[in-house]
Design brief:
single chain, eight-stranded mixed beta sheet, three-stranded mixed beta sheet, binds 3-hydroxy-3-methylglutaryl-coenzyme A
């Protein structure tokens, strides 16, 4: 059977950076450690005045196409996953294709374009769509371009404001992939929930605390569903477990639950018995509340054990580095967690060929999905080609006053004129609105903001 998966990936971060503990927290009157230790966030990316979901997506896609030497004729499908769209009819993929057609010979006239919506999980759903399209033999030898792009902004003053971010991930899905092969087996946990939604509004209505419970519940169901087709999971099976990362503190909670689930009835539970006892079993309790309390007690002890801390440090912590520096990228978030892990492996000189990842995606509203990925022989070249650190280091730091301006610039309800903070160079930029209120874009070789 043909293997299908992610051949290559690239990112594009919003070009501005806000320091959360040192710039944001003091103005909010909060302890900086709430950010660094509690939420696990250090800095967030924001889009400059001329950036939006289209420019970031198109810029990431162009990096990918240039690096892989692709032309539009090589692409049979462009799917954009976003929850920051500004049009209820015309998909963002048409804008991105239009941008790319400005700089490449040929066009995407015979490529299928779409836009996927299911909160943050839409990025993974787009991967699935591409995977299925190729497996079904409908791709005519062409690859799919999947772009997850978001400006994850919250209403000013919303608790979610601390977790904002902006950026895009472009992924090439193809046969015989160079990076990771996706498993056929998948598990889902899906329920009608109102934890986070945007009913025809730009900024989300969020029940923050509940959203965390819903995330954990759906993720557990997805894991059980995955195991029903792929067999029992065990912590030793997976080199890394990238989760959807709205903020690293959320993943801390998901990882602990996952570890407890995976170690039940295993050698690890046996090893831990003398230290913290066996895991509580539901049948030993009269009420669900008693059982839950016992589970909470067990988990409080589990997280202090050497076994758990060692596993967390090896398998989870490396997935969080990029997120802690960029904030929530919504649809791109789980994909930068994968990138973060593989980048850490590359930095450590670890051989990842043939190793497995277990990927936990999530979208509010709500649905979780779990699948496995097998790392391919050529993974190192792919990962070393992505200039994550350079992009993050090149961001321009903004003050709190600048942050307020930039939030207003990207607020669809406001119309304000603000000078850009950075000079665009060799990238797509937003240039204004056309006669039908469409957004317009141009590729600029060099900035000419001041003198042209
Ligand atoms: P909050 O209420 O401001 O924060 O907002 P908090 O008071 O709960 O503090 C956060 C953590 O920091 C806590 O850790 C505190 O103890 C700790 P925990 O107890 O949970 O482990 N803390 C400190 N630690 C050290 N030193 C200190 C300190 N102070 C506090 N001094 C909340 C938190 C998540 C509610 C908020 O950020 C929010 O509403 N975020 C948006 C919603 C969200 O991200 N939900 C996550 C799950 S849903 C999801 O992932 C989907 C999503 O990506 C959207 C989509 O799918 O499209 C959001």
């Amino acid at each position: 059977m043909t293997s299908v998966g992610i051949d290559a990936m690239e990112i594009w971060t919003g070009k501005l950076v806000l320091d959360l503990p040192n710039t944001f927290a003091p103005v909010k009157g909060e302890d900086p450690e709430k950010y660094t230790k509690g939420l696990g966030l250090h800095t967030s990316s924001f889009p400059d005045v001329y950036e939006d979901i289209v420019t970031m997506g198109a810029n990431a896609a162009k990096k990918l196409m240039d690096r892989k030497g692709l032309t539009p004729a090589d692409i049979g499908r462009i799917d954009v996953a976003t929850e920051s769209a500004f049009d209820n009819s015309k998909p963002v993929s048409t804008y991105i294709a239009g941008c790319l057609e400005q700089v490449y010979d040929g066009d995407f006239r015979h490529a299928n374009k779409g836009e996927r919506k299911f909160a943050c999980i839409a990025g993974t759903q787009s991967l699935d769509d591409a995977y299925n399209w190729i497996k079904a033999g409908r791709n005519r030898g062409r690859a799919a371009l999947v772009i997850a792009t978001d400006t994850a902004l919250y209403e000013r003053g919303d608790p979610g404001e601390a977790t904002q971010g902006a950026g895009a991930v472009a992924m090439l899905i193809d046969e015989d992939p160079d990076l990771v092969e996706l498993s056929t087996e998948q598990g889902y946990g899906s329920m009608d929930e109102t934890d986070f939604l945007k009913p025809n509004q730009q900024f989300p209505s969020v029940d923050g605390k509940r959203s965390m419970q819903v995330y954990l519940a759906r993720m557990r169901e997805a894991l059980e569903d995955y195991e029903s087709v792929a067999g029992r999971t065990h912590p030793d099976l997976f080199e890394y477990i990238p989760f959807h990362t709205p903020f690293p503190g959320m993943v801390r909670k998901a990882a602990l639950l996952g570890f407890r689930h995976m170690t039940r009835d295993t050698d690890i539970e046996d090893d831990l018995e003398s230290e913290i006892g066996r895991q509580p079993r539901e049948e030993d309790f009269e009420t669900w509340d008693d059982y839950e309390e016992a589970i909470r007690g067990y988990m409080d002890e589990l997280k202090t054990t050497e076994q758990y801390r060692d596993w967390y440090g090896r398998v989870i912590e490396p997935t969080l580095d990029i997120s802690s520096r960029v904030g929530n990228w919504y649809t791109g978030s789980v994909h930068i967690a994968r990138l973060s892990a593989l980048k850490a492996a590359a930095d450590e000189g670890k051989d990842m060929t043939g190793k497995q990842l277990l990927v936990g995606s999530y979208g509010s509203g709500a649905q979780a999905e779990i699948h496995a990925e097998r790392v391919q022989e050529t993974w190192l070249d792919e990962i070393e080609a992505v200039d994550v650190d350079d992009q993050l280091a090149a961001r321009t730091e903004i003050s709190f006053d600048d942050y307020e301006l930039i939030h207003d610039v990207h607020n669809h309800e406001k119309e304000i004129e603000v000078e850009e903070f950075t000079q665009p160079e060799a990238e797509f930029v937003f240039t204004g609105w056309g006669r039908m209120n469409e957004r317009r874009y141009e590729y600029v070789e060099r900035s000419c903001v001041a003198d042209c």
